[in-house]
Design brief:
This protein has a domain at 22-49. By secondary structure, the chain is an all-alpha fold. It contains two helices and no strands. The chain has helices at 2-38, 40-48. Helices cover 94% and strands 0% of the residues.
Length: 49
């Protein structure tokens, strides 16, 4: 029983970490999109990177 609950706990933890990572990535992408569309000079700089 202990092993089963431990595995479930780990799976939930992995899912939460994955979801947080995806949310962070999405937020970064959104921020980059907003910056790029607001300032063309920054988009050129990002394009060269």
């Amino acid at each position: 029983m202990i092993r089963d609950t431990d595995m479930i706990g780990r799976k939930i933890e992995c899912l939460l970490v994955a979801r947080n990572g995806a949310a962070k990535l999405f937020a970064q992408r959104q921020a980059a999109w907003h910056v790029r569309h607001r300032d063309p000079n920054i988009s050129r700089r990002l394009g060269t990177l």
